[in-house]
From TrEMBL:
InterPro entries: NUDIX_hydrolase-like_dom_sf, NUDIX_hydrolase_dom. PANTHER family: ADP-RIBOSE PYROPHOSPHATASE, DIHYDRONEOPTERIN TRIPHOSPHATE DIPHOSPHATASE. Residues 5-138 form the Nudix hydrolase domain. It comes from the Bacteria. This is Nudix hydrolase domain-containing protein. It holds the Pfam family NUDIX.
Amino acid sequence: MKSNNKQEYVAVVIVRKDGSVLIQHRDNLPAIASPDTYAICGGKKEASDKSLKAAASRELFEETGYAVKTQELHLLQKDEFDTPTGRVVRNFYWTYYDESQPIKCLEGQSIEFYEIDKISALNFCDPYHKEYLEEAHTRACQRR
């Protein structure tokens, strides 16, 4: 029996002028999902978040100390699916790096920019993260 519970998640890809993308190396703790893998920065929308973009901005700041305005977030992908515990909705965004704010590692083992041709060697928590990073890179480079 499916639950009516809706879980919303957000993630943000930051793209530099040179096309490199920001990736988090997750903590190596058995208690977390997908330990010691690579991922796009993000997390769960909280009840206090006014919107999904606000949740994305908050999550990015919590993990990196980087402040992004919601109007600077561009929708990259949205997917929805059912699980035994309810419906999951995920929104992925991308934004340009402002080239001035420092990026800090406030969650995970490390957070750094990777050239797009180097990410295939990384062990991602989910394969779609690699695809979305490549898509964010492509969109950002097309808009410049």
